[in-house]
Amino acid sequence: MDFLRSVSSKMAFDILKKFNVKLSTEYINVENAYGRVIAHDIISKEDVPYFSRSLVDGYAIKAKDTYGANETNPRFVNVKGEIKIGEIKDLKIDDGECIRVSTGSMIPEGADGVVMQEYVREMLDAIEITKAIHEGENICFRGDDIRKGEKVIEEGKRLNFFDMGVLASLGISKVEVYKKPLISIISTGDEIIDIDEIPGPGQIRDINRYVLKGLFEREGFIVTSLGIARDNLKEIKEKITSAGDSDIILISGGSSKGERDYMVDAIDSLGGEIIFHGINIKPGKPTIFARLWNKPVFGLPGHPASCIIVAIRFVLPFLKKMEGEASWRYKGLYTGILTTNVPSALGIEEYVEITAEKEHDKILVTPLFSKSSVISTFTRAEGYIVVPEDKEGLEKNEMVEVFSF
To answer: Which of 156, 228, 281, 334 is most buried, with most CB under 10 Å away?
Structure first.
């Protein structure tokens, strides 16, 4: 099998990293911002909270007036008044004075701590304090959470529900985010039939379309399936041309350099550029990455396991990069101990599906060896491990990093 410009896994990622493509932006309501990538830094224009407030029900006081207090030797202070939640009162305390407050009440001037109600015995116009506090205890001071001028969210962060809360605390109701990429999926091959057809000799149903669609829609991307193109140059070119409005084109099957594979010819005849053809990985070696109409095009292997691995390992991170995410590279989920040897070939980065089981304080990782044409293994797998290209396999009891699908 003749590959045109085969690259290592690292080289492939370097190429993807340098491929200059970023989507335009849009403004959306913060309530719809979960999982979206922010397009600019968020700089706070105010302190949060904008006033010092009590964290408990009790009495705002000068901490030094409580020093030495205990059950048998309480300290006495006078109660000057009360500040309820939401009230703004111009009250100030001096030595030997306190003001009753509730959780969330504004702290009066002069107070530097709050004694919890549980450590107070109330009298007519005074209280007995039975426990000492330190300065700042039970108070959230102005700006303790967020300072005015502070960068609270950086461009390129995928927003989570905590970020949405931060935006709400700053009164930001709309936020600028990168648009979701529009993905077109094309399946190719004379042997591929639709899901509702009965396979004849040498035919298989279109598996990859549904796996890819589910994977990318899980991430919130917009996916359109353009159906099946038969193995002829004209039909493949027509399908690719019909994907012209998308941001990225994924073509499943036809990426091997063989007699009946026309993907390279189709991309070339439409004015595209093949950047690499083949990655030194297993499964998934016959992978194409190209530029067409200044858009990225992936040619994915037709075998389901190969297609899925390439989609998870390379296409999905690249889509996150397109969406503007700063930390778009894949990350390990956890580490575990191999229960058996994993053989591999030197010079090939290999991906092996695994199951995992917790045993006492250890996680045992067991490989699920399968062929690249097999899909059912993935329904039992809990993730995958990577055999680096500079190793001839992994050994039993070796610590390995597990990646999620």
So the answer is: 281
